[in-house]
Specification:
By secondary structure, the chain is an alpha/beta fold. The model has no long low-confidence stretch (mean pLDDT 96). It is globular, with a radius of gyration of 21 Å. It folds into two domains: 121 residues, Alpha-Beta Complex (Aspartate Aminotransferase, domain 1), CATH 3.90.1150; 242 residues, 3-Layer(aba) Sandwich (Aspartate Aminotransferase, domain 2). Helix 7 links the parallel strand 8 and strand 9. Helix 2 crosses helix 10. Helix content is 41%, strand content 15%. The chain has 14 helices and 15 strands. Bound molecules: pyridoxal-5'-phosphate. The site of pyridoxal-5'-phosphate (PLP) has 12 residues, from helix 3. GO terms for molecular function: transaminase activity. Keywords: Aminotransferase, Pyridoxal phosphate, Transferase. This is Alanine--glyoxylate aminotransferase family protein.
């Protein structure tokens, strides 16, 4: 099930919900010498990235894909700056900090935001979206996997509502694309983005985007140019399609991203989904007897790539994580209202492997005086693999 991996080039064990450990092939690609951003070889490599992104996102054959020179948040911001105009009604689903970030950005670009929320740790309800959606809404925006709480939102069901409403559909696929099913064309998604350092285990610094023809038509019909010049879709198309200069792209990050994305597609998206499930289940089963319980109540609402676990009663969150950090193991706690209440264990990209979690279990065995924790993890892993 788990393909053989070259030895990691570093010792630190990152179990955080991003960044994830750099894939060895991406690390190697970073060592390549510099080439110009207008070099034919770079354009050829960009073309391969675009084709591979269409496969990863499940787009129509000719859908525009590109890398933005920035992190996932730039992918988010570019969607609002290009596709929203002042006064537009935008329905934002916000059940965590990244949904809230979307709402804040949409407002800064002049949108009238209709907020659909859900209690922390619960998914957005499709009925609540239906109740706020009408012919005036120009865009619906949702985070597929809410990293702050480990919740998976029902994107295919929301997509069904949005289709035929006249609204554009923007989906944040930062914690899903490349690791979990994502079908841009089938669902009718108009704009999506992720960050290189999440599910693809490339270095941070580029944000892969995909833009539907409908979104491009909306962009072309703008009354005024988008306020954010740097991520202007027209300028991006000039570079990525017409091969003319817009700005200097981070060439080395393109090399590394290309290698990481190829590695993901070579492994197969199905195999990646399977190892997320297997490692995640083994972690849950191993930690359950210690009192760790899933934070998200409904199993269908659980985001496989960010495992949110409620800590046992009286557990010394800060102390244990600091002790783990001294052993070069990074684990992330909760955010805001869930600080001290949960751990968020990353199962994106190269962190969804047995080896890093075995290191965590061995360290916890020692720190908590829990005998055989590492051995139990290995047993559970075999149990779910069989
Ligand atoms: C990490 C993340 C982002 C923001 O990405 P940055 O790379 O930190 O800018 C946006 N949305 C979600 C769901 C994320 O997990």
């Amino acid at each position: 099930m788990f393909d053989a991996q070259p030895a990691p080039l570093h010792d630190h064990t990152l179990l955080t919900p991003g960044p994830t450990p750099i894939h060895p092939r991406a690390m190697q690609a970073l060592a390549r010498g510099m080439l110009g951003h207008m070099d034919p070889e770079v354009f050829a490599l960009n073309g391969e990235i675009q084709a591979d992104l269409r496969e990863m996102y499940g787009t129509a054959p000719e859908t525009f894909t590109a890398l933005l020179a920035g992190t996932g948040s730039l992918g988010m911001e570019a969607g609002f700056s290009n596709l929203v105009e002042s006064g537009d009604e935008v329905l934002v689903c916000a059940n965590g900090s990244f949904g809230q970030r979307m709402a804040e950005m949409a407002e800064r670009y002049g949108a009238r935001v209709r907020l659909v929320t859900a209690p922390l740790g619960e998914a957005i309800r499709v009925e609540d979206v239906a109740a706020r959606l009408d012919g005036k809404v120009k865009m619906v925006a949702v985070v597929h996997g809410e990293t702050s709480t480990g919740v998976l939102n029902p994107v295919p069901a929301i997509a069904e509502l949005v289709r035929g409403s006249g609204a554009l559909f923007t989906v944040d696929s930062v914690t899903t694309a490349g690791m979990e099913p994502f079908r841009m064309q089938e669902w009718g998604v108009d704009y999506t983005y992720t960050g290189s350092q999440k599910c693809l285990s490339a270095p941070p610094g580029v944000a892969p985007i995909a833009v539907s023809d409908r979104a491009f038509a909306r962009f072309a019909a703008r009354r005024t140019p988008p306020p954010l010049w740097y991520a202007d879709l027209g300028g991006l198309r000039d570079y990525w399609v017409n091969r003319s200069y817009h700005h200097t792209v981070p060439v080395n990050l393109h090399f590394a991203f290309h290698a990481a994305l190829r590695a993901a597609l070579d492994e197969g998206l199905g195999a990646r989904q399977a190892r997320v499930k297997q490692v995640g289940q083994a972690v849950v089963d191993t930690l359950a007897p210690l009192g760790f319980t899933p934070y998200v109540k409904r199993p269908e609402d659980r985001l496989p790539t960010v495992l949110a676990l409620r800590l046992p009663e009286g557990f010394d969150d800060a102390g244990v994580r600091a002790a783990l950090r001294r052993r070069e193991i990074s684990v992330t706690g909760g955010l805001g209202p869930t600080a001290g209440v949960i751990w968020r264990l990353g199962l994106m990209g190269e962190s969804a492997r047995p080896a890093p979690y075995l290191r965590l279990m061995a360290a916890l065995e020692d720190l908590l005086g829990e005998k055989h924790l590492a051995a139990r993890f290995e047993e559970h892993l075999e149990g779910v693999t069989a």
